[in-house]
Amino acid sequence: MLAEKQMEDIYQGLKVMVIDDSKTIRRTAETLLKKVGCDVVTASDGFEALSKIADNQPDIIFIDIMMPRLDGYQTTALIKNNKRFRKTPVVMLSSKDGLFDRARGRIVGSEQYLTKPFTKEELLGAIKDLVLE
Question: What is the pTM of this model?
């Protein structure tokens, strides 16, 4: 139990952004991440996310692929083309587990790809791999 508590302390104060048009997905991710001490910022689409990214400067961004107005690919490309946020890791979220989607995510600059529904372990694993290593 103590080791698990210490493991969770490593996430304390990390700024995590979750961008998804599904309120359920946003709330689920936010709850899981807040439990381990992350500061969580959410957005329902790419447009809303872009201003929040500038204001909050997250350590890592989880982004849904299929969203209205500005999809995950377009939003990721905009993030990665910005000098200030180019190094911010972006993890694509999708209910589709296709090779095409993964490849397209890599092309626009995402570091990782998680299939929904994701687990707490997958979320924290991505943070551990991309932010804490």
Answer: 0.93
